[in-house]
């Protein structure tokens, strides 16, 4: 994989203060960011409950576990690649989690989804969140919601960034 990453844990216990060389301003912004995304994820799970005919809060309870929900953010950088035809930015995979909220780069493309056997580009969109469903949600909904196979292609030009929270 042609990427460099770091992972911030928000729940059940944060690691924001364990990561060296991070400014207090960035820690504060990421703490606020994590809380807002957690709230958005809970709202989306309630909409899924409504769509599935389940009681409000059911999916939140399922993902709560014995120690509370696990929620974190993966910050990724995909630098320019001199031979993009020889390597993937991130190999094809599905996400193990339930619900993934992705802020992708608004200028450099690379994200693709597998749809009906073909890879489809997800264009960079400014001020948008890509909502990806993971393996756990597919299992919990007995396949009514499907986990999405996706990958990231390397680019010869441009530095691609993404922030994925789940």
From TrEMBL:
Its EC number is 1.14.17.4. Residues 69-166 form the Fe2OG dioxygenase domain. Transmembrane segments: none annotated. Gene3D superfamilies: B-lactam Antibiotic, Isopenicillin N Synthase, Chain (2.60.120.330). Pfam families: 2OG-FeII_Oxy. Keywords: Iron, Metal-binding, Oxidoreductase. InterPro entries: IPNS-like_FE2OG_OXY (IPR044861), IPNS-like_sf (IPR027443), Oxoglu/Fe-dep_dioxygenase_dom (IPR005123), Plant_2OG-oxidoreductases (IPR050295). GO terms for molecular function: 1-aminocyclopropane-1-carboxylate oxidase activity; metal ion binding. It is an enzyme of class 1 (oxidoreductase). This is 1-aminocyclopropane-1-carboxylate oxidase 3. The gene is ACO3.
């Amino acid at each position: 994989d042609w990427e460099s990453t770091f992972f911030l844990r928000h729940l059940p216990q944060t690691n924001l203060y364990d990561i060296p060389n991070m400014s207090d301003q960035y820690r504060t912004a990421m703490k606020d960011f994590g809380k807002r995304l957690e709230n958005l994820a809970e709202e989306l799970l309630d909409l899924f409950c409504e769509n599935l005919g389940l009681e409000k809060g059911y999916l939140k309870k399922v993902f709560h576990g014995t120690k509370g929900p696990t929620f974190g953010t993966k910050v990724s950088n995909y630098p320019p690649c001199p031979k993009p035809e020889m390597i993937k930015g991130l190999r094809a995979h599905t996400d193990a989690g339930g619900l993934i909220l992705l802020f992708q780069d608004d200028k450099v493309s690379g994200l693709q989804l597998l749809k009906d056997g073909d890879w489809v580009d997800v264009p960079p969109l400014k001020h948008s969140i890509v909502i990806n469903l993971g393996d756990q949600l597919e299992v919990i909904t007995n396949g009514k919601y499907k986990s999405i196979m996706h990958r990231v292609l390397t680019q010869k030009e441009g530095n691609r960034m993404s922030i994925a929270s789940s």
